[in-house]
Write a structure and sequence with these properties.
Length: 215
């Protein structure tokens, strides 16, 4: 059976995992690996949101990127049958109007800082956010913490500052790396971007099983 070893690991909780509803925002270097991990772990209700096409420069780190020029959502629906894909640009207006209520967890692997901040304000209770994964190659440095305890990451610092200005003080989970930037331009290594996605998947599984979400 496809998920036999997952069932051995999770026992009766596997059915809880199967029925969890997870939304992944952005399916690039981080989000595509989170998708792959959740899908292989038995989660059957996964929705992805993205609007980009694959570029040849994506091929060093993104699952599905052999399909240069194709929409990420369409390619990943083929690779992961049964998922739901929303081909949509995630801007401020979209965050304001989108209905996040049906989802047990939301994984934010989006690129736009303002959008990430608004998502945090709206759904912090069910959020796991990826901070910066570029310019690094040491996956052993990756950490998981509250946004307020993250450190050594420029994106995290900016998000904290903006949330403070908005008088927002609630907690949500972030995956980040305090590893010092290894380059000035936006270089990347799948050893880190992929590991971010896998770490997010692990955190999602732990949260699902801890909360024992109803169907």
């Amino acid at each position: 059976m496809r998920y036999e070893r997952c069932r051995v690991l999770f026992g009766d909780d596997f059915e809880v995992l199967e029925q969890a509803k997870i939304l992944i925002l952005g399916v690039g270097g981080v989000g595509s690996y989170a998708l792959d991990c959740l899908y292989r772990s038995g989660v059957t209700h996964i929705t992805i949101v993205d609007h980009d096409t694959y570029d040849i420069s994506n091929q060093n780190r993104q699952i599905g990127s052999d399909a240069v020029g194709a929409y990420k959502t369409e390619t990943l629906m083929t690779l992961y049958p049964g998922i739901t894909a929303i081909h949509q640009e995630m801007d401020m207006a979209w965050v304001e109007t989108f209905d996040f209520d049906p989802y047990d967890l939301v994984i934010d692997a989006a690129d736009t800082t303002k959008v990430k901040i608004e998502i945090a304000k709206k759904i912090y209770k069910k959020l796991i956010m990826s901070l910066g994964s570029a310019k690094r190659y040491d996956s052993s440095k990756i950490e998981v913490a509250s946004i307020w305890k993250s450190h050594g990451d420029a994106l995290g610092r900016k998000i904290r500052n903006e949330l403070k200005k908005a008088k927002f003080d609630r907690n949500f989970t972030v995956v980040f790396s305090p590893e010092q930037d290894r380059c000035k331009e936006k270089g990347s290594c799948v050893a880190v971007t992929g590991a971010f996605g896998l770490m997010i998947c692990s955190e999602a599984i732990k949260k699902i099983l801890k909360n024992n979400y109803p169907n």
